[in-house]
Amino acid sequence: MKRIIYCAFLALILSSCGGDKGNYSTDLIKNDLSANGKEKNENAPRFKFESLEHDFGKVTQGEKLTYSFKFVNEGKTDLLISQASGSCGCTVAEFPQDAIAPGKDGVISVTLNTEGKKGTLHKTVTIYANTYPAETILHIKALVELP
User: Fold this and answer.
1) Which one in 7, 41, 113, 136 has a CA-CA gap of 20 to 30 Å to 120?
2) What is the pLDDT of residues 50-95, one digit of tens each?
3) How many CB atoms lie within 10 A of CB 114?
């Protein structure tokens, strides 16, 4: 009986952990043909971002701010993004759903909703992909002032 309750609880927890999912399973980030997440693979896709952080500066509370993080796949195989998770509900990321071929570029758009926020904000978006390393963290900052 305890096992059934445990399995039901585990299933409930796992089904509630959504996030922005791509068309690819997170199993791909451990694919030995691309990146296994533990050791460097010379054939793995690689992100090359123009910048890993963006500072919006001073903004007025209630604004929705968006920044586009541009990147190139510097690897030798297709880059597949499986998920992009914001550090809180006020941070949402949109990412390419299709594979990014070697040498091609892409954009990850991050939106920060400052409604109900004030002071210095530092939020992150974790990108899960078949790259080495398997996780890449983008940073956004803003100084939110009252209207």
Assistant:
1) 136
2) 999 999 999 999 999 999 999 999 999 999 999 999 999 999 999 9
3) 19
Q: Which two tokens stand for residue 20?
A: 């922005």
Distance CA 86, CA 65 (A): 14
**Predicted model pTM:** 0.75
Please check whether residue 118 is in contact with residue 144, taking contact to mean a CB–CB distance below 8 angstroms: yes
Token pair listed for 118: 């004030």
Go through 103-113 and write b for each residue having 16 or more CB atoms within 10 A of its CB, e for each that does not: eeebebebbbe
Angle 126-138-142 from CA coordinates, rounded to 5°:
120
CA distances to 10, 26, 84, 115 from 38, in Å: 26, 15, 20, 39
Three-class SS of residue 97? Answer: coil
Q: What is the pLDDT of residues 100-144, one digit of tens each?
A: 999 999 999 999 999 999 999 999 999 999 998 999 999 999 999
Q: What share of the chain is helix, strand, coil (3-state, %, to 5)?
A: 15, 45, 40
